[in-house]
Specification:
With 263 residues, this protein is of the alpha+beta class. The protein is built from seven helices and twelve strands. Helix content is 26%, strand content 28%. Strands 1, 2, 4, 5, 6, 9 and 10 form a seven-stranded mixed beta sheet that branches. Strands 3-12-11-7-8 form a five-stranded mixed beta sheet, with no helix packed on it. The protein binds hexanedioic acid (0L1) and magnesium ion (MG).
């Protein structure tokens, strides 16, 4: 079927249903092989409108597939972005599995902005000047695709596998530490299962925000004041199951602990 014939709104509703019902779906590109990356971002945007219409407002952006290792693990060659909404932010330290399909967790650094960022030619200085504070974060990703099998277009249309996120209790000055040098270890049930450093995120997490501004500018969009940005996984994502205990040591940004529960 040709792209022109694709009803992007219907596909956004289809993705939304699978996200809400926590039911796996087939790749959209199986049925629509002509789906373009631009179509996929439009589906994501229409999904954002559906969420907004039920009162789940957008509060930020996430960057995904920001490390070569992650890109290679899913066979995609570029970073992607997704939309974060109010209902995704979890304030307590319980990762509840109900409503999720096959969740994985990954440590990230979040930036919270105080000024608008818009445009293709931003510099690290622009990003730092617009940043209010930074926080350690854990993202929960939960691809809705069967067997985690998807193309770039599919994963973009599924809002970059966004599901939930946790922010640390402590905010830090943007100048607190060198984020690219920051070592991070992810523990599951007391064992280190992943480790990395901030440099895994496009060389430095600040570059992830430059890339985000660049990518959304193609659609005339900007990063707004007050928004939270998840800059990308510092390590590979790790599967979680009922009763797992997850701890992330962010070095000088402190530690975060999560208890995984069935409901
Ligand atoms: O946050 C991310 O890096 C998005 C990952 C999307 C692909 C996946 O679900 O593994
Ligand atoms: Mg992520």
């Amino acid at each position: 079927m040709k792209t022109k014939a694709i009803d992007l709104k219907k596909l956004a509703e289809h993705v939304d249903r699978h996200q809400n019902d926590a039911v796996e779906m087939e790749k959209l590109t199986l049925q629509y092989p002509d789906l373009s990356v631009e179509d996929a971002y439009k589906i994501q945007s229409l999904w954002g409108e559906l969420a907004g219409a039920r009162g789940d407002q957008m509060i930020g952006w996430k960057m995904g597939l920001t490390s070569r290792a992650k890109q290679e693990s899913v066979g995609v060659k570029e970073p992607i972005y997704g939309r974060l909404t109010q209902s995704m932010e979890v304030a307590d330290r319980k990762l509840r599995l109900n409503g999720l399909i096959h969740p994985r967790v990954e440590p990230e650094v979040a930036f919270v902005m105080k000024e608008e960022l818009k445009g293709e030619n931003l510099t690290p200085r622009d990003i730092w000047a617009a940043t209010d504070f930074i926080m350690p974060a854990v993202e929960v990703i939960d691809s809705r695709y069967k067997n985690f099998s998807f193309t770039l277009e599919d994963v973009v249309a599924d809002n970059a596998s966004s599901s939930k996120f946790f922010l640390g209790d402590q905010a830090y000055s943007p100048y607190h530490t060198s984020l690219s040098d920051m070592p991070v270890s992810l523990y599951k049930n007391g064992e280190v299962v992943q480790s990395g450093s901030g440099a895994a995120v496009l060389g430095h997490p600040v570059r992830s925000i430059m890339e985000l501004a660049n990518m959304i500018n193609r659609f005339g969009l900007s990063i707004d004041p007050g928004m939270v940005i998840l800059t990308g996984g510092i390590t590979e994502a790790v599967h979680v199951y009922d009763e797992d205990e997850i701890e992330v040591d962010f070095g000088t940004l402190g530690k975060m602990k999560l208890d995984v529960t069935a409901s």
